[in-house]
Each structure stands twice: as structure tokens, then as C-alpha cells.
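Q: For a teaching session next week I want to show students how multiple molecules come together into a single three-dimensional assembly. I've collected the sequence lines for a complex. Could you give me the predicted C-alpha cells for the whole thing so I can convert them for display?
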Amino acid sequence: MALRLKEKRTGRVRPLAGGWNAWRAEGYPVELVPAHEREPGALRQAHA
Amino acid sequence: MAASFTSALGFAAALHLLLALAHAAASPMNGLLQFLLRHGYPLLFFWVLLEQAGLPIPSAPLLFVAGALTGRGSLHFSTTLGLVVAAVLISDATWFFLGRWRGARVLRFVCRISLEPDNCVRRTREAVTRHGWMAVLASKFVPGLNAAMPPLSGVSGMSLPQFLGLDALSAILWAGAFTGLGRLFSRQLDQLAFYARGFGGVLLLLGFVLLGIYIARKYRARRRLLAAIDTQRIPIAELRRLMEQGQPLTVVDLRHRHDFEHHPFVIPGALHCEPDEAEERLEGVPPEREIVLYCT
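A: Of course. Below is the structure for the complete assembly, covering every listed component.
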């Protein structure tokens, strides 16, 4: 996925080392996704 | 690599057994034939049981030879089919309950002992999401899906009667196809035995070489891919720092729907989407903006 996206973009595309489990294990903050945004295809605002 | 080695051993053992069976079937006095004919049923049962338990040892050649032996009257077709289906159901029901009891961890363990641990979990989940019960029915014919399907069915909350019904039907189709083919070609078993007698060693060596090339290519491709990804990974501490500094970046949550619905949280500000939607969903993001992807 990362390699495919990288081919189409000029900016860096990087996978997060350890993923979601590592982020949570460090105790870093997480955000609850509102119910109406969990539907397939619902648009989430990208990180500003 | 250990899984690849086990797989190579399993394949070689199956090939050797195939040749031994074919060889033995042509010479009735052969002690091996007597052994295999006497213990053919338990051998078949435990071999299939172990394959369904997750070991990468192919049962198809054995089923084929068993089918050929049923054509010669050495084994009973219905008993052979019944034993194979029983072995499949015992093993798959165990994985089903383990999946229900221990969740996705069991699925990941099963995938780890297959040849393609990197995409096995996601591929299995996608198959179930897209094709539902048809995926269970077809799973016996798709390498990789076979072992992973029972624990996933348990994880996804499928009812036991539905799973056992579909699994039994799938096992009958799978075992019936290979033993039926073997039965169809039972007359050619003598010919195969003749060739096995003359070229058995060469065939075995050729099988080893081809399998070795296949595994080596697969292993190299996987190492290259992992090396390429490794050099580009962003450590979680760096992502945290960039976010605190307000650096412009887009974080994308690519966890599977099952994981996300179970725990609907994301890294603050992250965009959640399915992997096949990611390219479309990121079209509006400026191409020079950094993107960080994460999954489970």
C-alpha cells in the first residue's frame, strides 16, 4: 500500500512502525470516531 | 523461513509417499505396500488432520493416490471420503472454537505458519467480507485460506451449525474432487509406478529443486519488500513529535473493519478507510503533503 501510494505522490508516504498496537502501548492519545463517521464511505477530516 | 522449510519437507514427504505408493501398488509382495494398505486409512486421516491443523503439508497428492487405490479396490471410496471429512471437521471445529475463544490472535498465529504471513490475515478477512459463506465453501481449494478460514469464522461470530454445514460440504467437494480424479486415473497407477521405479530418484530430486527455487524466490521477494518498507517506517515517537509541532501531515488508519468496529478509536485526526479506498480518499490531499499509514 505504502509503495503504491508513494508512486503517485511527491510527499513522503511512511508506514507507522509498530502500528496501532504500538501507539496504544505507549499510552499516546487516541480519539473516538463519532458513530455517524463510522459508516463505510463517511468522510473523516484529515489531520490539519 | 522455518515455515518454508516445514513446507518443503511436507511437500517432499508427500511426493515421496506418492512415489512409494505408486511403486508399492505395482508390486504386491512389497512390504511397503502391505504397510500402506494395512494402515492407509489412519495414515490418510492423520495426514489430513495435520494439514488442516495448519501444517503446510499438502494432502492433495495423497488424496489422489488414495482415490486411485479405491479404483483398484484396495481402499473403499466411501470410507476414504468419510475419514477425510471427519479429519477436516475435527480440526476445523477446534480452530473455530479457538478463534471464538481467543479472537484475532489465533488467526494471526495460523497465518504465521503459512507461507504468506504478511497478507494472509487481511486476505482471509477480505474473502469473508466480500463473499460471505461462499468463501467458507471455496476455502479448501485456495491455499492460505484453508487454514485461516475456521478461526476467522469463529472470530466473526458465525454460528457453529452453519459453519459445520458449510465446512462439511466444502470438505466433501474438496476430498471428492481429488479422490475422484485419482479414481478416474487408477488404471494409470501402474504406469506411474513403472516410471517411479525407473525415475523415482530423479523425480524426487526435480521436485526438490523446483520447490527450492519457488521458496527461494518467494523468500527473496518478501525480504526485499520488508527491507524497502523498513527503511521508510516512521517511529511512533517521531509521529507524536511531528503532531505536537503541528507539522502538515495526514495520518491514515487502515485497520480492518472488524478491528475498527470492535474499537472505534483512531490516532487523533486520523482518517479511517479501507485499504482499497485509500487512493481515492487521498486524492484531495495535496500530493506534497506527508502521509503516515498504520494498521493493527
